[in-house]
Amino acid sequence: MTTLALEAEAARRFQAFLASLPSASATRIHVLCDSDCDGLPAGALLVRALGLAGYPHVTIEPKRKGESAWSPEVIERLKARNPEALFVLDLGSRADALLPGVPTLLIDHHLPGGTPPGSELITGYGTEPTPTTGLLVYWCLRVLIAEEQRKALLWLAALSILSDLGDKAPFAELAEARTLWPTGPMRDAVSLLNAPRRTANADATEALQTLLIAVNPKQISKGELPQSTALLAAKEEVAVALAAAKKAAPKFSRKYRETLGADLVALRMDTPCQVHPLVAQTWRGRFRDSIVMGVNFGFRPGYVHFSARGPKGVNVIQFLRAHAPAGADQGYGNGHDQASGGAVPVASWNAFAEDLGFGPELQLASPDPAA
Ligand SMILES: [Mn+2]
Questions:
Q1: Dist. CA 264 → ligand 1 center (Å)
Q2: What's the pLDDT at 369?
Q3: By CB neighbour count within 10 A (0-12 exposed, 13-18 middle, 19+ buried), where does 41 fall?
Q4: Is residue 164, in this structure, part of any structural domain at all?
Q5: How far, in Å, is the centroid of ligand 1 from the Cα of 125?
Q6: Last residue of a domain, one of 179, 205, 235
Q7: How far apart are CA 98 and CA 95, in angstroms?
Q8: 240 lies in some domain
Q9: Mean pLDDT of the chain
Q10: How many CB atoms lie within 10 A of CB 3?
Q11: What's the 360 CA to ligand 1 centre distance in angstroms?
Q12: How many Cβ atoms sit within 10 Å of the Cβ of residue 278?
């Protein structure tokens, strides 16, 4: 599908979904979004536009640490909230039920894994270039609010593009946003907004609040909002954790050089902060032809979390799925072809690391979860 066709299709299906709800003023709508600077702006765009369009009963929450949309604790929270319609943004897609009987629309751009019964999925996956979830939502909004109102929110879509794809992403919306708001403050805002979800407690509530009230990216980058102190503190916490994690020496596996066309490089760390994707990303510059893995033993008790980045032409998702460890959950081996990862139960880690071709330097000393 071309970008233009996807844009029209997304807007059409979004409109049909809203039209199927009882009525604007009566429907209690809840939005669940990812906690990164794609999911958060996607959620803020949707909530702000629904507000402008006269939907008064709209609530929103970002996912919390280690959660997916399908985690039992998330389903419990959603049930307790008892919404009449549900949006799930930037959190992937699966065939498992979320809230049976509640009209649900998933908007996402990761590899689709199915659609919950009775719900709909708008996906950007498979379209080149792949749009962010924030941009998909922005496209949808053209059927909900006036063009002038939508244009005033364009910077939110631009933040999602800068965060997920960087400033060279070939989207007209990014180019247009850069003529209206300077790139520097947008980049700084992205870095602040991505900090809270990487901290030890991973609470992105304040980052989301910021996006719900700010009128431009400068208010965020300049720290002029009530939530700014919390964002700055989060950034500092993550910077300290990242500096320590970056000092790890890379470990190598050449086991799959022939069959995969790439070596594996692992960086080992032990921190409650979600810096393993950043470490993988950082070292990718040094090992351009390898799959680089940031491996974190301290992120969440009972699990080893890792993030893998691969070169173009090497399908990281396929490789990980072919080597799925025992007890891998449904979050394992998802994401994008060149960026994936997973959480491996500590009891399965050592066998997994050995299968990947790593030596004792990647083994856990006490793989017993009770230890
Ligand atoms: Mn995203």
A1: 25
A2: 52
A3: buried
A4: yes
A5: 11
A6: 235
A7: 9
A8: no
A9: 95
A10: 18
A11: 35
A12: 19
CB 49 within 8 Å of CB 78: no
Q: How far is the CA of 342 from the centre of ligand 1 (A)?
A: 16
Place of tokens 């300049």: 222
The pLDDT of 223-238, averaged and rounded, is 96
Encoded amino acid at 367, one letter: P
Give yes or no: residues 144 and 266 share one domain.
Answer: no
Q: Which of 205, 235, 265 is the last residue of a domain?
A: 235
Q: Considering only CA atoms, which of 172, 177, 197, 198 is closest in space to residue 187?
A: 177
Residue 131 structure tokens: 């749009």
Amino acid in the structure at residue 199: T
Residue carrying the six token digits 């039209």: 19
Tell how far the Cα of 354 is from the centroid of ligand 1, in angstroms.
31
Domain count, the chain: 2
Mean pLDDT, residues 115-136: 96
Tell me which residue range forms the domain holding 163: 3-235
Distance 355 CA to ligand 1 centre (A): 30
Rounded to an integer, the average pLDDT of 52-71 is 95
**With contact defined as beta carbons under 8 Å apart, do 46 and 89 qualify?**
yes
We report the CATH number of the domain holding residue 177 as: 3.90.1640.30
Enumerate residues with CB within 5 Å of ligand 1 (an ion): 38, 90, 133, 164
User: What does pTM read for this prediction?
Assistant: 0.90
Q: Say how far residue 271 (Cα) sits from the centre of its chain.
A: 20
Same domain, 147 and 294: no
Q: Is 8 exposed, middle or buried, given 0-12, 13-18 or 19+ CB atoms closer than 10 A? A: middle
Given a contact cutoff of 8 angstroms between Cβ atoms, the answer to whether 29 and 55 are in contact is yes
Both 46 and 168 in one domain: the answer is yes
